[in-house]
């Protein structure tokens, strides 16, 4: 699950809540993963006369078209998304974008999700409004998809969930710049800053999926951290924001057999 990040990209999208932290907003006591994606599991938000009347339906379909265009753009142009597509294909889990990626209306706290029952990536058309956010959500959810493909991931097992969330945060979200902005610690100890970012991001995602106390999520993270933090497959390196890493990872993909 890609929990919405309050920093950087979103700032451009939403200036209405400066400085507000995800951790302040997550209603962790009563949120289950399934609640985040109301259009899943047959509770599709059908078009009603009231939605049509106030133009919500039109807005939704515009969001959907824009989301699908952004997904298509990333699949065609983003080096890191192309690398993930190639890695999934090499692992025997080829992605058909119409079958495996779905743009939907979600709870606004998240920008994406992975539905292991349907083996589908959900991109939240109402909260992932830019190409950058769609790319970040695709990378994050495709790491879950890759883990599901490679390791028979059981997302009901909190240790499995912790591991894949650590990997997704580590490879994608927690760049040096990202953790710098989030103010976890000084730049003197970059390694600790990065690890704290990964742990924090993974904790938020676990708590949004499972109805567990922070201590339970933290304990699961600690149990699997070393092993999962050091597993950078299939990207081979941590992606730093505004760096050449993304392109480098993609151009070196052939070294790992993902060409
Ligand atoms: Zn996740």
Describe the structure.
The protein is α+β, with helices and mostly antiparallel strands and 259 residues long. Among the domains are: 52-142, Zincin-like (2-Layer Sandwich); 151-231. The chain is 54% helix and 7% strand. Strand 3 and strand 4 (120-124) form a beta hairpin. The protein is globular, with a radius of gyration of 18 Å. Zinc ion binds at residues 1-2, 140, 144, 165, 168, 205. Zinc ion binds next to helix 7 and helix 8. One of its GO terms (cellular component) is mitochondrion. It is an enzyme of class 3 (hydrolase). One of its GO terms (molecular function) is metalloendopeptidase activity. Belongs to the peptidase M76 family.
What descriptors fit this protein?
alpha+beta, metal-binding, binds zinc ion, Mitochondrial inner membrane protease ATP23, 54% helix, 259 residues, Zincin-like, metal ion binding, four-stranded mixed beta sheet, metalloprotease
What is the secondary structure topology, with strand pairs?
Elements: E1 2-3, H1 9-13, H2 22-25, H3 49-53, H4 56-77, H5 79-90, H6 97-100, E2 101-104, E3 110-115, E4 120-124, H7 131-151, H8 158-173, H9 176-182, H10 190-209, H11 214-229, H12 245-251
Parallel strand pairs: 2-4
Antiparallel strand pairs: 1-3, 3-4
The site of zinc ion has 7 residues, from helix 7 and helix 8.
Pfam family, one: Peptidase_M76
Region (Disordered): 1-25
EC number: 3.4.24.-
